[in-house]
Structure formats: structure tokens, C-alpha cells
Write a structure and sequence with these properties.
Helices cover about 40% and strands about 15% of the residues. It is built from 16 helices and 15 strands. The strands form five sheets. It has a five-stranded mixed sheet. It has a three-stranded antiparallel sheet with strand order 8-9-10, covered by helices on one side. The longest helix has 24 residues, at about 170-190. It is globular.
């Protein structure tokens, strides 16, 4: 938790943007794993946490914009709770820590909302992503659950995005801390990786580091020697010599801020010549893309420039042909990299994605493409100082996608299919770093970069 004034200032800034009505920000509740008393690890709603700071279940924050008052609605723990959980602070005590002095039982919330509705006041709420909050809002406002999407406040969405996407110095410090733990996670994976162990052993080790030094992982870890599957959460394969292990993993800091790194390492500690060639191309795209990041440029333009670097490198490897500009204009390089260059990051590893990417990654100036590959770019808009982003180029050899494009003659004038087919079984390579846009460029987050050159990776693996 930050200092009290941080949360007061955030709510005041939101109030200035919204200007009228009630802002309702539900926190999250416990989510049962298999029965009510056995829950998943609690994760607070990021918007509630940003404005109200409290990392406990069962809270709803309400801001009365015209009156300038903030209220918390939640129930104090009873004796049964204390028996199982120990003494707990009261709702009032928690409210005082974040500058909220008006607290009420959760049962009072319905009266507050209904009174505002009777007086014709606007109720601002964000799109709910959990069913229990969807049902709660439906009951509070009197709108069918399935119709809530039509009443979500676009003004509130845009206001929240404008505030949350520009990170303060204190927030960047928290992300730096998460990145430092991410360094420990990935170097532990490099130390442990070897033929004969299972992916789950590496996954368990890095998630242990995340729990020891942070607040657990920031998303389900991707630890797979089948790295051509972009979000591969299966950890049951035995690692084999000659294969590559792709590890995409991050951690939350104590205050909930994320890191998100990807490294791809040779299972037996040494890259083959073929692996090294592809790996160094991906690393070149990462380094040169990072050098392009600065305020005032669009991330879409950085993505497209990186696509040209990738296409030129794939031509040198004999996998593509034709003019680089034509390759990228037709999206042919997306056969090898069907995702975007990166996304925003903060309290969420894909920051504010629950609010809708068209508000977070795009705006009226930069609209999302429908082209395969480019259409998967989550962040396209103009960069500002304080934006935190991932930079994560990759090259993947996806057998089903290769077969589909060859069969349908998609971009066949740019792709050397006989050469590409020789790489089936290669897997995939992704190299991902986290950066913050500064006044004069950007910087990588964390005290030191996770080992990334061929020599650094092999040294970290003890080879």
C-alpha cells in the first residue's frame, strides 16, 4: 500500500475527469476452487486497488463526484472469521489508511444506489469481468446482467485509462522491484534446466522464487519446449537435448505491480548453429525495437519497423523472399510472428485489458488493424513518458499454420515453403523485456537485464 495521500490524490484526479454522478468500483470477492471454504489465491480488482488501495475481499468503493465524498461499503469480520483468520482490522481502520472516513455495511449500498437513481443521477461503472460482480451490479442498478454492457460508462473507462496508464515514480519503482525478482526467476530456470527433467520442475522452481520474494506469479507461467504454441501452459514434457525451452513468466510485487519476461534457452546449455541463427535474429529485433521507443511515436510504427527487421533477417536465413516492404505490407512475416510486439503493463500484466483494448492500446488517432498478425498488436497508440511496455518479438514454426498457408497459397510469393518445412519441430523463440518510456527515450526495467546474449545465456546455464 502506498501512503494515504496517494489514494486521495488519485480519487480527486478521477473526480475532476468524471465531474458528475456516482462512481461505483467493486473490489473482488474470494473465488472458490472447489468448495466455498477453499478458495483460489485472492486477487484484488486492479481498479479498486488503484483508487482505494485495500487488498481485501468484499469491499465496494463509491465516489460521489458532486459532493466530493468517498465511501467504502464492507462488513467487519465477526467472531467466526476471527476464529479462523485471527484478529482483523475494521472497515473504518482500513478506510482511514487510504483517506476514506465514511464507511458503511455492505447492506447499505443498495440504498445509496437506489437513492441516486431516484434523483436521476448517473451511475458510472466499469465492465465487470467476474460473474459475482456482474450480478451485484445488476441487482444494485436494476439492469439485467446481460444488458450491463450497454450501460458501462465510457467516460469512466477513458478517465481510468488516462490516469492508470501513466505510471508515477512510485509505481515505476514497484515495477522495478518486480523485474528484479523476474531476474531471479529466469536465472534460476537457466541454472536448473537440463535434459531429463520435466517442464514442471522448472515451472515449480520459478514460481517458488516468485512466492519467496514477491506476491506470486503475475500470470500462469509458460514453460514449454513446444514454444511454437504461444500461450502453452502444459508443463508435463520431459526436456530433451537439442530442444529449446521457452519461459514466459513474471511476478507481482507486494503492491500488485507486475513483471513479464521471456527467455528461450537451449535445454542442454548450448545453442546449435541453427538455433543460434534464429535466436540472434530475434534478439536483434528486440534490441533495435527498444532503441526506437520514445515519446511521440506510435507503438504501431515500432511494431511495423520491427516487422521489417524480422523479414530482412528471415530472408537472409532463406525462409522468405521478395522485397521487405512488400512482405510487411502483405503481413507475410506474421507466419513466423503472429502476435504484436508488446502490451502495456502495470497492476495488470496486460494492463487494463478488462477495460477493452480499444480504449487502452488504441484511440481515435490509431485504430486497430484487421490484418493477421498486426491485428494482434495490443498496444498501437502514441507513446508518452510514463508508459510501461513489453517488447517481445519472436519467431515460431507452427506446423498447422504453415500447412494452412501453403495449402491456401497465402503469401506464397514471399515464403520459401520447402525451407520453412525443414524447421517443423524447431519450436519457437521469444525474447521479452519490460521498458518504461522516459523523457528522452526509454529504459529497461530492473537493475540488470536478464541474461540475453548467446554467451550470457550459456554462461548462466553453466556452459
Amino acid at each position: 500500500m502506498f501512503d494515504t495521500q496517494t489514494y486521495v490524490a488519485r480519487r480527486n484526479a478521477l473526480r475532476e475527469k468524471v465531474q458528475h454522478g456516482l462512481v461505483v468500483l467493486p473490489g473482488n470477492n474470494e473465488s472458490p476452487m472447489n468448495y466455498a471454504a477453499n478458495g483460489y489465491r485472492f486477487r484484488q480488482d486492479s481498479n479498486f486497488r488503484y483508487f482505494f488501495g485495500i487488498d481485501r475481499a468484499g469491499f465496494v468503493g463509491v465516489m460521489d463526484v458532486e459532493e466530493g465524498t468517498d465511501c467504502l461499503y464492507a462488513d467487519n469480520c465477526d467472531m467466526d472469521d476471527i476464529i479462523w483468520m485471527g484478529p482483523q482490522p475494521t472497515v473504518q481502520q482500513l478506510g482511514e489508511q487510504v483517506g476514506v472516513r465514511r464507511t458503511f455495511a455492505l447492506s447499505e449500498l443498495q440504498k445509496t444506489i437506489q437513492r441516486a437513481i431516484r434523483y436521476g443521477r448517473k451511475i458510472h461503472f466499469l465492465p465487470p469481468y467476474r460473474e459475482e460482480n456482474r450480478q451485484m451490479l445488476s441487482n444494485l442498478i436494476g439492469i439485467k446482467s446481460g444488458s450491463l454492457v450497454n450501460y458501462v460508462s465510457e467516460l469512466l473507462i477513458r478517465s481510468v485509462v488516462a490516469l492508470r496508464e501513466i505510471k508515477s515514480a512510485a509505481e515505476i519503482d514497484e515495477i522495478d522491484k518486480a523485474c528484479d525478482i523476474g531476474y531471479l526467476m529466469h536465472t534460476e530456470a537457466m541454472r536448473l534446466c537440463r535434459p531429463g527433467i520435466y517442464e514442471r520442475e522448472v515451472a515449480g522452481a520459478i514460481e517458488g522464487v516468485a512466492t519467496i520474494y514477491g506476491n506470486g506469479v503475475s500470470f500462469p507461467s509458460i514453460v514449454s519446449q513446444n514454444g511454437e504454441t504461444l500461450h502453452n501452459h502444459y508443463h508435463g514434457n520431459k526436456l530433451a537435448a537439442g530442444r529449446l525451452l521457452l519461459i514466459d513468466a513474471g511476478v507481482e510485487s507486494a503492491t500488485g505491480y507486475s513483471s513479464d519476461f521471456t527467455r528461450t534457452i537451449p535445454v542442454d546449455g548450448r545453442f546449435t548453429s541453427g538455433q543460434k541463427a534464429v535466436y540472434e535474429l530475434v534478439l536483434e529485433v528486440n534490441n533495435r525495437s527498444t532503441a526506437m521507443i520514445k515519446k511521440g511515436v506510435t507503438y504501431r510504427s515500432v511494431h511495423l519497423a520491427s516487422a521489417k527487421i524480422l523479414a530482412a533477417g528471415l530472408k537472409e536465413l532463406g525462409l522468405m523472399k521478395g522485397e521487405v516492404d512488400d512482405i510487411v505490407a502483405n503481413g507475410a512475416q506474421a507466419l513466423f510472428m503472429p502476435h504484436g510486439l508488446g502490451h502495456q503493463m502495470g497492476l495488470d500484466v496486460h494492463d487494463m485489458e478488462d477495460l477493452g483494448e480499444r480504449f487502452v492500446g488504441y484511440d481515435q488517432e490509431v485504430e486497430r488493424s484487421t490484418q493477421f498478425g498486426l491485428g494482434s498488436l495490443r498496444m498501437g497508440r502514441k507513446l508518452c513518458a510514463g508508459h510501461v511496455l513489453t517488447v517481445e518479438p519472436g519467431v515460431y514454426f507452427i506446423p498447422e499454420l504453415i500447412a494452412k498457408w501453403k495449402r491456401e497459397k497465402i503469401n506464397d510469393s514471399f515464403i520459401n515453403y520447402p525451407a520453412v518445412e525443414k524447421y517443423i519441430g524447431f519450436g519457437g523463440i521469444r525474447i521479452e523485456d519490460d521498458v518504461v518510456v522516459t523523457a528522452d527515450g526509454c529504459r529497461r526495467l530492473g537493475k540488470q537485464r536478464v541474461p540475453v546474449t548467446v554467451a550470457e545465456v550459456e554462461a548462466a546455464m553453466g556452459k
